[in-house]
Amino acid sequence: MNELKIFNQEVIPVYETEEGNKVVLGRELHENLNIVSKYADWIKNMILYGFDENKDYSTFSKNLENGGRTIEHVLTLDMAKHIAMIQRTPQGFAIRQKLIELEKMVNKPLPMSQAEILAAQAQLLVDIEKKQREQDKAIEKVDKCLDGICDIVKLDTTSWREESRKLITKIAKSMGGVQYIRDVQTEIYKLVELRGSVNLSIRLTNKRRRMADEGVCKSKRDKLNYLDIIAEDKKLIEIYTAITKEMAVKYGAFYENAV
To answer: Where are the domains of the chain?
Structure first.
């Protein structure tokens, strides 16, 4: 009993433990319910309703004036309410209602002080500003992405060589750096050959032979590349630009610098 202090004495004494838990003594509950059977027998029967020691109740020994000792039970409010209810008596009803009222009072939030209110308002403003900054960054990212998407959409068959070059550079950067430009170009050429049912290497070789027959110098013939072959075929230009756009979307090229 040394670690318990009275919390409320209306209807039945309610105590508060050192941990702040509200409890009822089993023997006092027995007395206030006007139970005629002996306490030891009664509490033993009540425990059989499914209550667990050290969860719903705890025990301690108490010295008696005659030199003997007795076992006392400390009950949680939930256990005490349940026991009061199953008695089906006016006393049980009154005790249960009072314990419910006390529990509501204990769980009711305490009113905030002026300082706490100001602190809460200040924190709310900080949170709002933080969310606003996050939203601004998100909007900025979206704007940059939209700009990148516009670059993809505006790639057409008139300025396709320069615009596709820029877009391929962005694709490479989105993959990790400009060192991937050659890999991107190789993949595009393979897809052009597959989709256009052509062999760019054979076409390039044939063109160089024709230029040689026409007397074009070797240095100029060596400068020819697959883009020059594609440029001679409107269908291949359309395929090339379409594939470049698709790869830009695939690798998220429009996210470049949108971080």
So the answer is: 5-107, 118-198+233-255
pLDDT digits (tens, 9 = 90+) for 187-223: 999 999 999 999 999 999 999 999 999 999 999 999 9
The residues, any chain, with a CB within 8 Å of residue 138's CB and separated by 6 or more, are none
Quickly state the pLDDT bin for 258 (edges 50, 70, 90): very low
Contact 107, 74 (CB under 8 A): no
C-alpha dihedral (111, 114, 117, 119), degrees to nearest 10: -130
Tokens of 108: 């009711």
**Tokens 């059989």, residue located:** 48
Query: For 107-138, what is each residue's pLDDT tens digit?
Result: 655 566 777 667 777 787 777 788 778 776 76
